[in-house]
Amino acid sequence: MSLTNLQIADLLARSADQAESYRQRAYRKASRSALAWVEEARDVLDGGRSLTELPGVGDKLARRIEGWMNQAPEVGDPPESRTGFSTRSVSSAIVEGHPEWREAINADLQMHTTYSDGTVSIEGMAEAARALGYSYVAITDHSQGLKVAGGMTPDEMRMQAREIAEVNDALSDSGFRVLHALEMNIAPSGEGDTDPGDLEGLDLVLGSFHSSLQTDKDQTYRYLAAVRNPNFHVLGHPRGRMYGTRAGLHANWKKVFAEAAKVGKAVEIDCNPNRQDLNAELAARAVEAGCYISIGTDSHYIHELDYMDMGIATVLAAGAPRERILNYMSADELLAWVADR
Ligand SMILES: [Zn+2]
Questions:
Q1: How would you classify the pairing of strands 107-108 and 136-142?
Q2: Cα-to-centroid distance, 280 and ligand 1 (Å)
Q3: How far is the CA of 207 from the centre of ligand 1 (A)?
Q4: Number of other CB atoms surrounding residue 197 within 10 Å
Q5: Tens digit of pLDDT for each residue in 224-260?
Q6: What is the pTM for the complete model shown?
Q7: How far does residue 113's CA lie from ligand 1's centre (Å)?
Q8: How far is the CA of 43 from the centre of ligand 1 (A)?
Q9: pLDDT tens per residue across span 48-68
Q10: Angstrom distance (rounded) from CA 292 to CA 281
């Protein structure tokens, strides 16, 4: 008998729901990190190793998970907020079978730095991404409207532009390049929080919803308005879902993707294991509609840059042709694509 990491994540989330408040947080955290484990827990045990080798697992939790492994408890279907997720161990195994997809990818198109809620400098993220074999990245710090994430005022954006130019100067011999991008906050009206004039010098703009994400009413209107907003190029983490806490917004995706394809806007696959937004099922519908796809790890730490396999596994499952995926373009091709919008 054994359980997958996805089933373990679900059992941990169920334990959080039943636990005393001080234990709840530990279970929730462990549930989220189970999605990001690189190895299946059952392989760790089969190899005679301890589950405490997995990030976020202490002695107590290890005993609990081993207990579940032995009993394989019967549980009902997970709630919507935990439905339609894959895990990093599964994604990495899929990508192992298609190494050329990992080798050919040129860029990671969403990451944050200390200019907003990231933990690493521009230079630090650039160096780490270069070491992973990318030829360029997009730095996508938050805009001013997202105060909880330390969003940037236009002045801070100009400061960041200067720092990116310096980093690019220092890296000019390496062929590696940092694109100055932005994750602009989008209101439910579809409008961005930054004046179009302040977006002018940017290489790429993502637009993301970060508010009113808990409603289960149909939100097609806000997506159509956002997609038709000409001031950004990529719709970031489209549903705004979060494993175990938010199911994400609902819409008539056929209409939304058809409109995105018509105006040439890309939709994002956010590789964070707790987001997976779009997931394989919705990404396949976006591809079918003719949308461009952008993949971003949404990294706030260096180790999160490794989440790229989640996105590659998703485009493989969705049958996305590489010509429609921005990350497989060179930096110059991407800038030409942006200029065309
Ligand atoms: Zn975001």
A1: parallel
A2: 19
A3: 8
A4: 8
A5: 999 999 999 999 999 999 999 999 999 999 999 999 9
A6: 0.96
A7: 13
A8: 33
A9: 999 999 998 999 999 999 999
A10: 16
